[in-house]
Amino acid sequence: MNQGAGYKTKQRQAILDYLMENKEKHVTAASISEHLALDGTRVGTTTIYRHLDKLLEQGLVRKYTVDGTTSACFQFTDKDEQCREHFHLKCEKCGKLIHLNCSRVKALCDHIFDEHGFEMDFFRTVFYGVCGDCRNHQTEETEG
Amino acid sequence: MNQGAGYKTKQRQAILDYLMENKEKHVTAASISEHLALDGTRVGTTTIYRHLDKLLEQGLVRKYTVDGTTSACFQFTDKDEQCREHFHLKCEKCGKLIHLNCSRVKALCDHIFDEHGFEMDFFRTVFYGVCGDCRNHQTEETEG
DNA sequence: TTGCGTGCAAAGGTTTTGCATGGCA
DNA sequence: TGCCATGCAAAACCTTTGCACGCAA
Looking at chain A, which runs of residues are DSSP E strands? Predict the structure, then answer.
């Protein structure tokens, strides 16, 4: 019952492993490639994209674009587990992307849905701002 | 008081006019180029991107990415309206931009600042999702 | 053996950069 | 006149496609 998942190759397994190890955040084709290379499993970009496409069709990963980035983001979706609610904070200074798990966020989503009729896509929504590190550095620079 | 808006050129004006005529929806660099050409004002792609960048910095337009499309979307924002004090919800179905005044959202921002050290940028942050109207239409279509 | 999987090379599309020219103030 | 604006050409990216070879079943 592997529903057209295809052959079992080491490339496919490596990609899948990486996605599953990073369920809590999103990754890009480039970051997959990079990480796999470090692990000693070089996988061509083409292959990565092709597998991501298949996984998309099978509903095993989600694809979305994040504002401020140029490449598409992918994230494994465990069908068994309920989707994790987490937000992304993007620092406008250093570009860092923070994956924020916070129950307050879930509460806000519910509120916006109930009171404003808007169903939020919290996977895609990105909060822009300045992270703590950059605020500190900024202060130092201003003083120096 | 044009705060570094630069020279007044017909290209700049044409781009601005087009953006303002289409406040209620988003446009792409390509659609701007195309439309301006039809209006008899050919503007180079480079120039369009450069102006969009400037307008972004000045906070006169917002930039989005829309899933399923490859190019970035832009939308004019009136500065007169108090867009710095409220949040924006972008419907991924119809493209509608909703201006949301809600104390709960501000409370979340405070929380994120206090607990996570992240200072949010109200103006740039956009919540993606599906608006009530589109959810209703979706239901109708599903039913027949 | 069969046919999918793989990856190089190259194409396609969007956005950015270099540079010489053009035009506003 | 001085400096920014413009736009062509080309580069830089991300993603897809063509094609020959490799490998799982």
Answer: 61-64, 73-76, 86-91, 97-101, 119-120, 126-130
Residue A46, SS3 per DSSP: helix
Q: Which tens digits make up the pLDDT trace of B81-115? A: 566 677 889 888 888 888 888 888 888 889 999 99
Nearest residue to B26 via CA among B61, B75, B60, B68: B75
A86, A90, A106, A112, best to mutate vs chain B, most B CBs in 10 Å? A112
* Contact between the CB of B2 and strand D at under 7 Å: no
**Distance in angstroms (rounded) separating the CA atoms of residues A126 and A98:** 10
pLDDT digit string (tens) for A85-100?
677 888 877 777 788 8
C-alpha pair distances (Å), A44 with each of A21, A28, B111: 20, 14, 43
Task: Tell me the per-residue pLDDT of A31-84, one tens digit each, with 9 for 90 and over.
Answer: 999 999 999 999 999 999 999 999 998 888 988 888 888 999 998 886 555 455
For residue B22, give both structure tokens.
Answer: 């289409």
* C-beta atoms surrounding B90 within 10 Å: 25
Query: Which amino acid is located at B23 in the chain?
Result: K
